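Reopening this one. Same input as before:
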Amino acid sequence: MDKVPLFYHEKYGEYSFGKFHPFNPNRFQTFVEEIQKEDKMNSEVEIMESPIVEDEILETVHKTEYIRKVEEMEKTGGSLTMDTPVKKGTPDAARRIVGGSLQAAKMIDERDFSINLGGLHHAGPDYGEGFCIFNDVAVATQFLLDQGKDVVVFDTDAHQGNGTMDIFEKHPRVLFISIHQDPATLYPGKGYVQEIGENEGRGYKINIPMPRDANIADYHHAIEEIVRPVVGQFSPDVFIRNGGSDPHHADSLTDLALDMRGLKYLGETSRKMAAKNGAGYIDLMLSGYGRRVVEGWKAITIGSLGVDVPVPSDQKIGDLDYDPKKEIVETAKKLKSILGDYWDF
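Same output, byte for byte:
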C-alpha cells in the first residue's frame, strides 16, 4: 500500500517575517519531527522533498508585475502590508511551499492523498497580505483545472481565504467553501454569506461565517447542512482542504473554540467527504498562532490519516450531539435561501 506523501523542505523554515512576528517558522521542522516520533503516523507517511517553482508556475495565478514587485522588495526592503514584510529568503521559501502543493496536485492520480505544509490563501492575483506571499492553494488548483479536473477547495482556516476566492471568483469548476470566524470580528473582513462569486462562478463560492466561540457542534451543523450536500452535488475530482490550527480555542489571534478533537474532526470529515465522492484528497496546513500550533496540526493529521492515535490533551469543548448556537443555525438558513437557485438542500 502506497504511503501518503508529506511534502517538506528544510528551506520552509526560511518562511519567516522576523523574530517577534506571530508566524513562527519553527513549526515546519517541529511538525515533521513530531510525525516521525509517532510510529503509527510515521508508518503511514513518506517525507518527500518540495521543489522550488519558477516564475512560469507562479504566473498561472499571479500577475508578472506582482512577482517582480516581490523580488524588488526582497532586494530593497519593504512590506506588502504592515503584517507581511518581505525578508531576504522568504520569497524563495514561499516558492518551495508552492512547489510542495503543486507536487501534491501532480501526484493525485498516483497517490490519492497527499499532505503539504502549505495554505498561503491570502495572496491574490496582484497582492500579498496576511503572512502570504504566493498562493500555493491556487497554483495547485489551477494545475488540476488544466488537467480537466473539477476541484473543491474547503478552507477551514479561521481567517477567510480571500486570495483564493479572488483568483477563482468567476470560475464554475472551482467550488470554494470557506468556514471561518465572522469577518466582522477578524481579518480579512471578507467572507459574508452574500459573497457567492461572480458571473459563471456565482453559487460556486460559499462563505460560512462562524460566531466567536464556535465549537465542534457548530462546525458539525454547518458542515452537515451546507458543505456536505453541496460537495455531493458538485462531485469533485479533487478535494483540497486548507487550514491549520487557528480555529483552536487557545490560538493567540482568533476567537473560535474548537478543541483538539474538533481539529481532528475537520481532518477526518474532509477526508471522508473526498472518499465518498471518489475524489483525490490534498491536505494543506500552515496557519496557527501561539504555543499549540504543532499539536493542532497533529490532531488534524490524525483525523485525515484515520490512525488510532490519541489527540493531544486538551480541554473538552462541546460535542457533536450538542445543540449548535442560534447564530450558526440562522447562518445556515440564510445560506440555503441565498444558494437555493444553485443547490438543492
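So the earlier flakiness isn't reproducible anymore. For the record, The mean pLDDT is 97.
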